[in-house]
Task: structure prediction
Amino acid sequence: MSLSKEKIEKIKDKVAFTCCRFEAGKTIDESVLEDPALLPDFVDSGLIVVPDNVLKVREVIGAKLKVTVDALTPLTTDNVENIVSSSEPEKVEENVASVNQQVETQQVAFQTQPQMVTSAVQSNGMVNINIGKGENISISFPAGGGVSTPQPIYNEPITVEGKTSPTASQTVEQETVIRELKKEYIKVDKVELGTNTKLENGVLTLNKSLAKKAIARGNGIVKKFEYEVITEKDYGKVIDTIMDIQPIATKVEGELGQGVTRVLDKVVIMLTGIDGNKKQIGEFGSSEGEIDRNVMWGRPGAPDKGDIFIRCHVVIEANAGMERPGPLAAHMAADVIAQEIRDELKKATSVTVAKTEEFKHTRRPGKPKVCVLKEIMGQGAMHDNLILPVDPVGTVGAVPNVDLGNLPIAISPLELLDGGVHALTCIGPASKETSRHYFREPLVIRALSDPEIDFVGLVLVGSPQVNNEKFYVSKRVGMLFEYIKPDGVIITTEGFGNNHIDFAEHHRMIGQRDIKVVGMTYSAQQGGLVVGNEYMYAMVDLNKAQQGIENEILSNNTLSPEDAIRAVEMLKSIMAGNEIEEAERRWDPSVKLKNVKTIEDALGEKIVLELNEQSLEKSKKRREIYEKE
Amino acid sequence: MAIKGFKSEIYVPITPPPVWAPVTKKLSEMNVSLVTAAGVHLKKDKPFNLAGDTSYRLIPSETPVEELMVSHGGYDNGDVNKDINCMFPIDRLRELADEGFIKGVSPVLVGTMGGGGNQHVFTDETGPKIAEILKEEKTDAVVLTAGRGTCHRTAVIVQRAIEEAGIPTIMIAALPPVCSQNGTPRAVAPLVPMGANAGEPNNKEMQTNILRDTLEQLVEIDQAGKIVPLPYEYHANI
Result:
């Protein structure tokens, strides 16, 4: 292993180990040292131990080996002589600091004179600055904040054209509202079953004889269909696994993503299901049991305390739970109930609006351009999503993501918030995004409302089942963002595991195009990344569970407002050229708290952190599996 | 405003992009080769340079184990000196061919030292060269083993080169984290110490089971980067 000179500069404060066997008397240079990034794995494997007296890379470069050493030997005062004194490196550090200072100055200058730096950024990702006056010093350092290592795979010349910060004339450009969406929440005091569906004076009466119609829409796979009304007093009821939580909403003006949408206030559809063998329909865990012990109240995708549930329960053909048609049929059947209510909601006249939400998609020329890329599932079975129905979270008009080839789809942020995604995703309940999650997506809401960024828009991308297709799709993502040319992208994914392969690849495809990237996923203890690359330097962990695990509590580890704040602020930080400190090798919940505090201190605002499962009574699984007493 | 002082919240292993050669034949139709980064070579060959060696040695498939030896300074050679099959299960592979579990042993098997060797040379020269040789010999699949940490890394580099040439591979790893981080396409991980990846020396049953399971996983593993634990355990007394 030989390290390059640029690499040595980056790792000068890391510990020094040999990469091979070297004879006594050898002068230590970059070819002698092992890449420090690999050492933690060797420590984990028990291959090496890092002694207290190990020297830093900067201390050994130029020094000599006193004795012959094997590969992976720590360099210490025992085996190295002529160690570089510490005073000199500090001086070097000062120089480096002053260079950084100059770079910052350059970046400020760059805002008004972009061409100066354009010429300095080379296609190999290095910035070369020549200071002609005085000592004729040449300084080279990697472009892009110095977090990523060089060796870009993307070999096209990196230019900064079109990505300049505002010029004086741009900053006075008008903000433009390109789309508006109003959600009117219709007050419902009571839901009951009756002979006809109607919504009058705060009472929703639902036709009790729809089961047959629902089964008929279940493609022959739905064997049994029941529905009932559950109110707060019955939250202790034992139910089967929750496959989805859906708002009940309909368009009354305009099409999806703009105009006016009516939403039932505090009433949701809760879809639960098992198969003919009484097996829960869920792959990586399931949330069956008492409702109030298996639901993380108030998360964007979960029920809120006080909500009335119209619980649709399906029994599908035995063993159909893990095949594509099974869960899809369950959703199709339940949509009969939802559509019955939507139709009534659309025409109801004697309604009271309990509250109104207004969303505006405002373009802010001159501010840093930001996109959100949401990776959603598209693997058949319950890993799929229906994209862009006619009515919010409906099924009519929507196309399964798997049939769209999982390719990136530009979707307006307001289309998403208007129920543009009907989610079939309930694999691991704690980390999966339900239909209601998309209807209340906190990152999209945060991005829309931040006046310091120009939120360009939202792209959804599927996560295919087949490995090769993951890369096919990811390449399209890269090409799309090459055209959009945003300054920064926030990438989110739900769940964990194989979808992290795509997630990582999206970071690479976007990051290597010189676009700043922040990634958001559940990781913590159980969802640790299996792959990664140098563009994944700014990551937000969605975990809330005390143990850092998937504990089968619905929505416990999903993207929440507190995560959205950290991600947007982190992106603004890196777009401004700040560096992000490297992550700890092991999950440490205090890192998130420190980031929260950093934001609170800077903005002078308190960030409300979500409660986790510890606020609930223990479910059976927590008692018996995860938190044994 | 741009806030300073953030720390990334998720550890990210830096892994190269995956490579993947699909399995297209049944095991009973495959000619299988062994490639090891454990310093195996013919006794008559020039030994490897223990300070890091990027060269390789070819081992004809019919070579008796008595004509093989190990030159490797990186791991305890105790086990491999007792029974070279614990790192280079050539007898076991021939037996599996005899019983028809696989079609045959590829005419050429390959030994490298791997430990500490220059990664760039392995990536740009040695790996592709070994892949080319295996391709010429119409090898259908390759099983790899490796000595210690840097050897596991080297083995994965070679594994990736072979895979890029279109031959599916699987690594028997004693150090799965190293394989994972370096982008192994497929690997299995029995509970073995470094120096006996393929099972306890002179324990024919364990070695056969490990090799058989490894070949089955070659077919079963469905995506790059998967490492499957194998239920065999051996503690070396060194």
Q: What stands out?
A: The first strand of chain B starts at residue 31 and ends at 37. Chain B has six helices and ten strands. The radius of gyration of chain B is 17 Å.
